Structures are given as structure tokens and as C-alpha cells.
């Protein structure tokens, strides 16, 4: 598909000269080598600034990290954007697909022109034949036909957040005036569908919607969603977790309810991220999500000013590992601080996890969720442990049968032949 004529930003050449490079970028003295392995950066080009105020959002308080007098100061400047794009592409090992993931806050607050410029920089710095992709996570409020035409033509994959039908969605996903956002989000979803934009739906699972797995799944499916991501909310507090946090076993029951509905009606036509990952693990592939990989550290976050953090769940001063305008990304990603952060995921597991029959399916889950204690009193147990065990026990026989079907050259939905 040909790009729109203004993708190249008018005056932006497709490839910079050496003189332009020197004029744009201040010198960096550290060595420049591609990273040892592919890595992923989640970009926060508006920082924590958003046009709604979800009560459970873990990122809104990150605004306090930066002493900006105005909300409008939380905007990735052109020179930071260009450095980020150039560094991110250049630091990946040869042959790696480069995915730009735009999140927030709310990235659509920057307007379409910001992303046209980002795509122009990507085209400028990509090597011949290099695959560049983009994904955008949004609350959907600002999506209209102009946005969606751009997103389709630029081949963005859009994640839109919907927590279920109106009453469930509006429990926590409120605007800055305390009003529900459901109707506006559905209008954004319909704009994506009307303009044939590739999208998936992201549902945050918390205590209030955590008992409605099957109903939420049916609602999303009937709204046209064919790719669904499920994200559990775990909010640590001094005495445990918040009242919004999904219960451990509740999370497992939620996943099982979605699984049962999906298995009965939609295998091969609807794709649930957690199920796809588990099938891959059953087939012997590595985890497609850092949450259930043995180590982490290859999924970092970059803030609006170029600061890089170990993970978007660890955007804190002690987890700031550099700034893209000062240090090459490959040096940051493969540096000792980030390497230790990634290794700690496995190295700090309690013995309870190391002895668990589901260790290779879980690896303790996300370190940000390890706020519970084992029956023996060991720290660092995942709050969701009991739920994951419920899910693994419930699905393992069928996943094993699906893997056998695929190895035999059949489809996953033919699993019954292999039970």
C-alpha cells in the first residue's frame, strides 16, 4: 500500500546525510553494537497524561516524576522522537522485526501529525528490507475517521480498552469529570471497524468484573472482536492489595469461564492472547509474553523525554536505566543494571515456585504481582498464583490434545480426536 504523500513530513529526506546526523545528534562516546538479542520498547510519548482517569490506572501517578508546569509539557519533542526511532531501529540485531508500541497516558492526544512524523522517521532509518510495525494502545475516545484512515494506511495495529458491557466498563473507566466513557469508546471501536483498521480489544480484569468472564467474552465477541487481551489488575498496598485488585482464585475462575465459552464456540475464529501463549508453551515454544518467560528485561519503557526504564510496571527513579539522548539503546538494554533486572525474575523465585508442577508455564508471573507469601512464609509469591493453578489444571488436557492435533497436521479445533 502506497503511503500518503505527506508521510515523509514534506522536508524530511528518506535517508539522512552524515552532516545531518551530526547536526541532529550530539556525539555519544560509548560503543555502538546491535543488542545481543531482540528487545521491545513501550513508548510513552505523552508520559502519564490522559484524557480519562481510570481509577485503577497504574501509570497516572508517574506524572509526579517530572517537574513540568503544564500538562502540555508532557510531549515527546521532535529531536527525542527522531533519536528514539533511529536508536530503536539501529540497536536491534540483524533480521529482527522492529515493533513500535505507542502507549500512555493516551497517545492520541498528540494528534495524527505526530504519528505521521514518527512513520516518516521510521522510513528514513529503516534498512532495506527491514520490517517495521506499529501498535497503538488507546482508550478510543478520540478515534474518528481521520485517525482511522491514517491508522489503516499506516498499517497500525490498534488496541482498544473495553472492560465489558456498559455497567462493568463504566465502573472504573471514567473521564476527567467522573462520567462514564462507554458510549464514546464504542463509537471509537465502530470507527475502527468502519475503516477496516486491524485491532484487538484489551480488557482489564478487576474485582468488579472478575466474576463475569463468560459474559464479558460474549459481549466482546458479539461486538466483533476477534483478538482479545486479558490483563489482571494487582495493586499492591502496605497491608496487601487494594479493594479493586482481582482475587487470586477469582482470576483463575475468570480465565476458565472465558476458556469454556471460547472452547465451545470459537476455536480458530477468535484468539485470546493468554490461550495462544499457553498453546505455544505446550508446543515447546518460548513464552510470547514476558510475564510467563523464565527471565525478563527485554521489554522496557521509554518516557516522553527519552528516559528509559526497566519496564513500564517499574517506572521509578531506581529503575531508570538511561536516556536515549545520552546513551545508545544497545548499551542500556545489555547493561548490568537491566541484565540483573531481567535475571532477578527467576533468581528471586521462592522454593514453593521452584517445586511447582507448573513452573515452566508460569515462572512466577510478573514480578510486579509478587506481593504475597507462600504457605511456608516465603516472600515473592505472585498474588495470582492460585488462579493460575486453577487455569492450568483446567486447560492442560485440552491444550495437550490441541498440540498433538497441530503436530499431526490438523487444526487446533480437531483436538477432540487426540484427547
Automatic annotation (TrEMBL):
Domain Radical SAM core: 33-264
Cofactor requirements of the protein: [4Fe-4S] cluster
Keywords: 4Fe-4S, Iron, Iron-sulfur, Metal-binding, Oxidoreductase, S-adenosyl-L-methionine
Family: Belongs to the radical SAM superfamily. Anaerobic sulfatase-maturating enzyme family.
UniProt EC number: 1.1.99.-
PANTHER family registered for this protein in UniProt: ANAEROBIC SULFATASE-MATURATING ENZYME HOMOLOG ASLB-RELATED (PTHR43273:SF3)
MF term (GO), any: 4 iron, 4 sulfur cluster binding
Stretches assigned to coiled coil: none
PROSITE patterns per UniProt: RADICAL_SAM
Gene3D superfamilies per record: Aldolase class I (3.20.20.70)
Name of the protein described by the UniProt record: Anaerobic sulfatase-maturating enzyme
The UniProt record lists the keyword Metal-binding: yes
Pfam families linked to this entry: Radical_SAM, SPASM
NCBIfam families reported in the protein's UniProt record: rSAM_more_4Fe4S, sulfatase_rSAM
InterPro entries for the chain: 4Fe4S-binding_SPASM_dom (IPR023885), Aldolase_TIM (IPR013785), Anaerob_Ser_sulfatase-maturase (IPR034491), rSAM (IPR007197), rSAM_sf (IPR058240), SPASM_anSME (IPR047207), Sulphatase_maturase_rSAM (IPR023867)
EC main group: oxidoreductase
SUPFAM superfamilies: Radical SAM enzymes (SSF102114)
Amino acid at each position: 500500500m502506497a503511503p500518503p504523500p505527506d508521510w515523509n513530513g514534506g522536508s524530511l529526506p528518506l535517508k539522512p546525510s552524515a552532516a545531518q546526523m551530526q547536526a541532529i545528534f550530539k556525539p555519544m562516546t560509548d560503543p555502538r553494537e546491535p543488542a545481543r538479542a531482540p528487545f521491545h520498547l513501550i513508548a510513552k510519548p505523552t508520559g502519564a497524561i490522559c484524557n480519562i482517569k481510570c481509577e485503577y490506572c497504574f501509570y497516572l501517578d508517574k506524572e509526579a516524576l517530572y517537574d513540568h508546569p503544564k500538562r502540555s509539557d508532557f510531549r515527546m519533542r521532535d529531536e527525542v522522537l527522531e533519536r528514539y526511532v533511529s536508536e530503536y531501529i539501529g540497536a536491534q540485531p540483524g533480521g529482527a522485526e522492529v515493533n513500535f508500541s505507542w502507549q500512555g497516558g493516551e497517545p492520541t492526544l498528540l494528534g495524527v501529525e505526530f504519528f505521521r512524523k514518527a512513520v516518516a522517521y521510521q522510513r528514513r532509518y529503516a534498512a532495506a528490507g527491514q520490517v517495521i510495525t506499529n501498535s497503538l494502545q488507546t482508550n478510543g475516545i478520540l478515534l474518528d475517521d481521520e485517525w482511522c484512515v491514517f491508522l489503516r494506511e499506516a498499517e497500525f495495529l490498534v488496541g482498544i480498552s473495553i472492560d465489558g458491557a456498559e455497567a462493568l466498563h463504566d465502573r472504573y473507566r471514567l473521564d476527567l469529570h467522573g462520567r462514564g466513557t462507554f458510549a464514546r469508546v464504542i463509537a471509537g471501536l465502530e470507527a475502527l471497524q468502519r475503516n477496516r483498521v486491524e485491532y484487538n480489544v484489551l480488557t482489564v480484569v478487576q474485582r468488579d468484573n472478575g466474576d463475569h468472564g463468560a459474559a464479558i467474552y460474549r459481549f466482546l465477541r458479539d461486538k466483533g472482536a476477534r483478538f482479545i487481551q486479558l490483563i489482571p489488575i494487582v495493586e499492591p498496598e502496605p497491608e496487601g492489595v487494594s479493594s479493586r485488585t482481582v482475587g487470586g482464585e477469582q482470576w483463575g475462575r475468570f480465565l476458565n469461564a472465558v476458556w469454556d465459552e471460547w472452547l465451545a464456540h470459537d476455536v480458530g475464529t477468535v484468539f485470546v492472547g493468554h490461550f495462544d501463549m499457553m498453546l505455544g508453551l505446550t508446543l515447546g515454544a518460548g513464552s510470547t509474553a514476558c510475564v510467563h518467560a523464565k527471565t525478563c528485561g527485554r521489554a522496557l519503557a521509554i518516557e516522553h523525554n527519552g528516559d528509559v526504564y526497566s519496564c513500564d510496571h517499574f517506572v521509578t527513579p531506581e529503575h531508570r536505566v538511561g536516556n536515549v539522548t545520552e546513551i545508545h539503546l544497545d548499551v542500556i538494554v545489555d547493561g548490568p543494571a537491566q541484565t540483573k533486572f531481567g535475571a532477578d525474575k527467576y533468581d528471586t523465585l521462592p522454593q514453593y515456585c521452584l517445586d511447582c508442577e507448573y513452573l515452566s508455564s508460569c515462572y512466577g508471573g510478573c514480578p510486579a504481582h509478587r506481593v504475597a507469601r507462600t504457605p511456608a512464609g516465603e516472600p515473592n509469591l505472585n498474588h495470582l498464583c492460585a488462579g493460575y493453578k486453577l487455569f492450568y489444571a483446567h486447560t492442560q488436557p485440552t491444550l495437550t490434545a490441541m498440540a498433538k492435533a497441530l503436530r499431526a497436521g490438523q487444526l487446533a479445533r480437531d483436538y477432540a480426536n487426540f484427547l
